[in-house]
Known about the structure:
disordered N terminus
Amino acid sequence: xxxxxxxxxTTPYHAVLCTVLWMWTGEAQQSYYPxxxxxxxxxxxxYDGKACIVRALRxxxxxxxxxxxxxxxxxxxxxxTVTSFTDSLISDGLVGKLLGLLISRNSxxxxxxxx
Length: 115
């Protein structure tokens, strides 16, 4: 399994379709964000989705079998499955890629892109 962090579009039509879907979602959710434009709502939802993925990954890593922690109430089957899945993520280099992204993160670049 290969994890590519960058977002690649297979065709220009795919990029346009993704953009239209995000704008449509922004339009549908705009009533929950009064005073914000459809595009800004779409951007907020995009980054909220990314944050949810990171939180889910953190919860999976916390549910692994470990020496210093354990989550009460989880069955041994669930812990074994989660540990197996996260082991495959770690062996595929996901943790290294995430750490690399955190190190190379440049907030000023993204602020400049939004202006």
